[in-house]
Amino acid sequence: MKNYNLSEYQSLIIDNYKLATDERLYLSEVAGDREERFHWRELKNGLEITATSWVGVIQLEGVVINIRPKFDPDFSGLLRMLAYARGNDYSATARETTFRKGVHLLEIIVELLCREIDALLKLGVFKEYIHLEEDLSVLRGRPDLRRQLEVNCLSPIKIACSFDELSTDVLENRVIKTALENARRIILPKALSLRVHYQLGVFSELCGAHQGEFPSFTYNRLNEHYRRCHELCRLLLHSSGTGDLFFREDKGFFTLLLDMNVLFESFVTRLIGNHLPPDWRLRAQYRKSDAITWEDGSSYREIKPDILLIAPNGTHRIIDTKYKLYSEKKIDTADIFQLAYYAQSFLAKDEQGFYHACIIYPAADDSEPAGNTLFLNRRIEMYKGRIDVYALNLKKALRAIEEKDRAYLNNLVRDVLGRECG
Could you identify which of 44, 201, 317, 392 might form a hypothetical disulfide with 309, taking C-beta atoms 3.0 to 4.6 angstroms apart as the criterion? Predict the structure, then answer.
């Protein structure tokens, strides 16, 4: 099986590759209509794939297509970024795997999952008391008199028993088994495939499989060691295509894609929220329903900035995240108009009376975080505004998060806020 690589927003032509009927149907499904996860086109003598903001891996019958983020072509920080955006401070990185050139994201995730399962088994499998009702030949627990009369009245050798039993067949273990079942169907290196099969055998003895949506867990001292493992399982089980993650397995084809637009927004929101100066408040995705109305005052359309900041003096600050290549091109006019309207709707003015907003986008290289300012209607006092354009270096931010460098992160957020933060 051949591996092909491309970066987000790039195109790739695979020569002499003829799609089977199942592959055509599968690509049509996973590419998405509204989401536009990627674009594909069947050529006379090949296949063309054009990436969007979604990154990850598409595995067909004869090829593996890796769509790699520009800031992280080896996927070394993508999983760490995903974990942080979801509120988890642990690091799951490709550096913890036996890295091989051309390795794809699914393989990295499976190898990390196997490592976590090995550690989990050493610490002990989680067990929980479950309530059982069975007909037994000897009494166990307490007798169920009603069920005895209803079911066993003609079979006196059986006793209807009701009891609690310590069991490993619980949700914590079931999701791991189901994730391993999915991993077993992925084309993996032989050593890793054998490892997955062994661990699946272990969990098949412990529990059944999980069906339905990924459950929500409450962690405590008894199951805390499952947290990392569950986060990796989520990547192999989530299949609804909502939010920042899309996973689909069908007829031996696999796709795991992450929407960098949504992920970048969630990451920046948590980063700023965790390192705001004292007395500042953050509201994510705050909806304002009276910005665009009909003549009678009823709402026509809501506006929803990514981040609304409220300063100690009550003034507002608007921040919008854009996962776009603004290091290589001009800011889109639509984004400028959007931010200007947000600033006016929320009366977000700075000390000099400018309507003020900020765009944050990912830096294209490993340079220091940098910002510039666009001025709008500078000569019209009533409508003058400014938009700060800030390039966030994701590599350095992730490194500071991993090293718990709060001083760097605090200064980074203060740079974004500018002089208003004091």
Answer: 317
Short-list 93, 96, 392, CA closest to 270: 392
Beta strands in 45-105 (DSSP E): 46-51, 54-59, 63-68
pLDDT digit string, tens, across residues 49-72: 999 989 999 989 888 899 988 888
Q: Which neighbouring-strand residues pair with 246? A: 257
Instruction: Count CA within 13 A, CB hemisphere, residue 191.
Output: 2
Q: Distance (Å, rounded) from C-alpha 368 to C-alpha 252?
A: 43
DSSP 149: H
Distance CA 306, CA 284 (A): 6
Q: Is the pLDDT of residue 422 over 60?
A: no
Instruction: Give pTM, 2 decimals.
Output: 0.81
Distance CA 30, CA 58 (A): 9
Alpha helices for 319-405 (secondary structure H): 333-345, 394-402
Question: What pLDDT shows up at residue 307?
Answer: 94
CA end-to-end distance (rounded Å), the chain: 57
Neighbours of 383 (CB within 10 A): 13
The band of 240, judged by pLDDT with boundaries at 50, 70 and 90, is: very low
Residue 97: the pLDDT is 52
Element of type H or E holding 258? strand 253-259
What is the longest distance spanned by two Cα atoms in the chain? 96
pLDDT at 32 over 90: no
Nearest-angstrom CA–CA distance, 319 and 267? 13
Report residue 188 as tokens.
């993996």
Contacts (Cβ under 8 Å, ≥6 apart) of 113:
179, 180, 183, 229, 232, 233, 236
Contact residues for 245 (Cβ-Cβ < 8 A; gap 6+): 234, 235, 238, 256, 257, 258, 259
Q: What stretches of 207-345 show up as alpha helix (H) in DSSP?
A: 227-237, 260-274, 333-345
pLDDT by residue (tens digit) across 167-200?
Answer: 999 999 999 999 999 898 888 889 999 999 999 9
* 175: alpha, beta or left? (left if phi > 0; alpha if psi -120 to 50): alpha
Question: C-alpha angle with apex 303: 284 to 88, nearest 5 degrees?
Answer: 20
Q: Which two tokens stand for residue 213?
A: 């949506």
